[in-house]
Design goal:
- By secondary structure, the chain is an all-alpha fold.
- The chain has one domain (about 10-235).
- The chain is about 65% helix and about 0% strand.
Amino acid sequence: MKGIPQKDISPWIYFGFPFGICTVYYGWGIFFPQYIQALFTEYGFIENLTAIILLSCIVLVTYILVRQKAKKASLYTLWHILLLMGCIYFLGEELSWGQHLFGWYTPNNWATLNEQKETNLHNLYQLGYLFSRWPENIVIASIVIGGIFLPLYIRYAKRPKTFLTHWIMPTIVCLPTAVLVFIVRLPKRLIKYDPEFMTVLPQIIYFRTSEIRECLTALFIFIYLCSITYRQNISKELHPN
């Protein structure tokens, strides 16, 4: 395909970021278990880091959309608009749409509907799964398929690159983070299968794994967007439309 660049982002980003975050996270939990709650509070390390990563994603995807200067709607444009909307929703829910930052009072009518008395959708009684579990499962499945299996298939099947495989699908640089997103889910499932695992695993390995999973999910999106931005900037085909 004419104009397709062969280079991608630095390993310092796609290896360093995910493994660096996991090293700090699990190292903190293993060597300083008395401070483990500091990782998970509303103003703790993981939530703040996830918010920073998502904010960076919003900046990157906005840059991609502005830089391409598309004159008409296309698959590329629509895909990144959807990503922008998804990142805004993800960040909004993560911060309860600003409540964690500004500390506003939850209206009584809304508080009666929300399990944690917050201004978000994913903690709504009865309906929370529609705004949390289902979207999360779809995203995780997309990361496993699009971040692990498809990049390996595209890389080793030696098929010609197409617009879809190069500009829409994640490349091999997303693989390390995608694998970690999958791995951090396993300990909790093992414990559900056999509670005896709790006696041999450090608490940080299975306690509130959703927090580190959300952080790595946000990081996967960030690395994907970094890759798109880098390749779009060095490509002769600057406007993939």
